Amino acid sequence: MRTEKSPSGPWGVMASFDSPGQLLSAIARAKQAGYKDMEAYTPYPNEEVIEALGHHHSKVPLLTLVAALAGGCGGFALASWVSMQAYPMNIGGRPLMSWVAFIPVTFETTVLAAGLTAAIGMILLNGLPEPYHPVFNAPGFERASQDRFFLCIEATDPKFDSKEARSFLSTLHPIEVVDVAP
Amino acid sequence: MSTVFDERAIPGVPPRPPILGEGQTPTTLTNQISEMPLSPPLKTPKWWLAGFSVAFGLLTMFLFIVTYLFMTGIGVWGNNVPVGWGWDIVCFVWWIGIGHAGTLISAILLLVRQQWRTSINRFAEAMTLFAVSCAGMYPILHLGRPWVFYWLMPYPNTLGMWPQFRSPLIWDVFAVSTYATISAVFWYVGLVPDLATLRDKAKNKVARVIYAMGALGWRNSARHWSNYEWAYLLLAGLSTPLVLSVHSVVSFDFSVGIIPGWHTTIFPPYFVAGAVFSGFAMVLTLAIPLRVVLKFEDFITLRHLENMAKVMLVTGWIVAYGYGAEIFMAWYSGNEYEMYMVNNRFHGPYAFQYWSLILCNIIIPQAMWLRSVRRSPFWLFIISIIVNVGMWLERFVIIVISLHRDFLPSSWDMYSGTKFDVGTFVGTIGLFLTLMFLFIRFVPVVNMFEMRTLTPQATAKEKAE
């Protein structure tokens, strides 16, 4: 089954493979051939594929660090402000700024802010939630979440020509090459 | 690229049993694991219907008991001066402790690259989440006025009131609510790619739409995985100190007070070890029947059970050390109240509970030194139940024995739970099991995408590098 070519051309051309090894060599060959805008889809994370496509720099760690610092400072500031200004109470003659007692709360707010940021940051940096995306139009793409490895050359690539891309991908011993309708 | 440690390559060391059944490929394991959530409603297995009915019945009973409690007040429970904390706090600590194994498996074993965690982390995390939900019931029910529970949170209000940040009870609010939130987030993040698999495999339109909403449009792209791996690793790193902090903070509820038997520095590590001990016991209690009814012997192998038994053996000894340290410190402190408390545990009216606890938590688990016991699902199941009981008794011993002999002999009293205490506890077990059965039915019990990384296809390539 092939998708009808729409007037504006396909969103990309996609080849599917059986194993991560084949996908990796396909990425290398496509890079050699001068393609730049491409993306791989794998049923489980694969470090080499991520690195081959230059995706290994993620902003998630930095965001998480910032959130952790903010959460920690915020928690400590809250506990100090409440204990010294908003609701000062003399507990057994101890100083109002009894900072040791504020550490558990500081720790918890650090972890809470960092953890929520790591998760939400990952989702937003991935552009999710995204109900529609053209790759789902590719026939057989449902196996990207099961057992197949996909490489898609996207139409935004300067060198992109759907016919050429298709014949190029066919030389890489794929299981199948399909057009991705926009 | 990381090199996977190939344990079969060490000369002179007998090969370890595999952590994945022979002949499993990404295709077969995906099909097998997703079978249950994707099976149509009319094909729901009979064991599930039967189990869910019982669990839901208990949950309904819980609803009635809680309604009666709210109408009447917490006087229906057995706690009264001097024993102001009874079954409610015993069960709270018990449930929180059970949750710890889930986070330990999902976070700490991930960081130390224990690949056998992969097949049990999903349902252990679910267990954490549900156990914390059950635990959270108790402090709120115990408030007496549960509808104002939000007063525990720091927020500007017309009363001009703020929480007391020097109180362990407020630390507890922060610790438990953070733990519940982060556990839920960790669990959901781990679930997203698997929900995408269910979305892609679902034949039923309603199921597909629901799973698609949960999957958020996940498309398995390399860019997605890159951010994902970072987020997952960071969540694991954050959860590791978090899980150690939760039971430490719970132990502060006791150890910061000056009650004999509570006021010791051994409490935080001893509580954490006890939590892991009871948590692994609960994982075994759940995993052993589950692997049989779901036919998951390929994923949850005897090696998994054996490893969990070893963790229990180690943490059991840390707990035993805690018991020893309590006795030693009571004697070494030279404090007559502390020494009296120990004597009262040994020979007092609750001596039966104390010695049962020693039997359940220290003596019987030693059977796990035997390899044949560690590899026998039947015996591990029995031991895990015994440890669950023992850990419940431990909290009972700590809380009730210390409280029932107040500093003033005129205040001494005996404590026992009423039928409402028992009903509330059984009711939370109903809540736990109801959630567990729903989880088994609608969510893949084993993390599919991580299991794929254990297949020969994925590992063979890494070796070739």
How is the topology of this model organized?
The complex is a heterodimer of chains A (182) and B (465).
Chain A: E1 12-17, H1 20-32, E2 38-41, H2 47-52, H3 60-86, H4 103-125, E3 149-154, H5 162-170, E4 176-180
Antiparallel strand pairs in A: 1-3, 1-4, 2-3
Chain B: H1 26-38, H2 46-72, H3 87-111, H4 118-142, H5 168-201, H6 205-215, H7 222-255, H8 267-293, H9 302-333, H10 336-347, H11 351-363, H12 371-374, H13 377-404, H14 419-442, H15 448-452, H16 456-464
Structural account:
The complex is a heterodimer of chains A (about 180) and B (about 475). In chain A, about 45% of the residues lie in helices and about 10% in strands. By secondary structure, chain A is of the alpha+beta class. Chain A folds into 2 domains: about 10-45 and about 145-180, Alpha-Beta Plaits (2-Layer Sandwich), CATH 3.30.70; about 60-125, no CATH class. Mean pLDDT of chain A is about 85; it is low at about 1-5. Chain B is mostly helical and about 475 residues long. Chain B has 16 helices and no strands. Chain B has helices spanning about 25-40, 45-70, 85-110, 120-140, 170-200, 205-215, 220-255, 265-295, 300-335, 335-345, 350-365, 370-375, 375-405, 420-440, 450, 455-465. In chain B, α5 runs antiparallel to α7 (about 220-255) and α7 crosses α8 (about 265-295). The longest helix of chain B has about 35 residues, at about 170-200. Chain B is globular, with a radius of gyration of 23 Å. At the A-B interface, β2, α2, α3 and α4 of A face α1, α5, α7, α15 and α16 of B.
Widest sheet of chain A: strand order? 2-3-1-4
* Total of DSSP H or I helical runs spanning 4+ residues of chain B: 16
How many β strands of chain A by DSSP? Answer: 4
- What's the overall average pLDDT of chain B, rounded? 88
Total DSSP helices of chain A: 5
What's the story with the biggest beta sheet of chain B? Answer: none
- Corresponding CATH architecture of the largest domain in chain A: 2-Layer Sandwich
> What share of residues of chain B is helical?
55-70%
Overall mean pLDDT of chain A:
85
What structural category arises from helix and sheet content of chain B? mainly alpha
Examine the secondary-structure arrangement and name the CATH architecture of chain B. Answer: Up-down Bundle
Count of domains of chain A:
2
Cα distance spanning the termini of chain B = 9 Å
Question: In the residues of chain B, how many domains can be counted?
Answer: 1
CATH topology of chain B: Formate dehydrogenase/DMSO reductase fold
Rg from alpha-carbon coordinates of chain B: 23 Å
- Cα Rg of chain A: 25 Å
Can you give the helix content of chain A as a percent range? 40-55%
Largest sheet data of chain A: 4 strands, antiparallel
* Highest CATH level, the class of the largest domain in chain A: Alpha Beta
First and last CA, distance of chain A = 16 Å
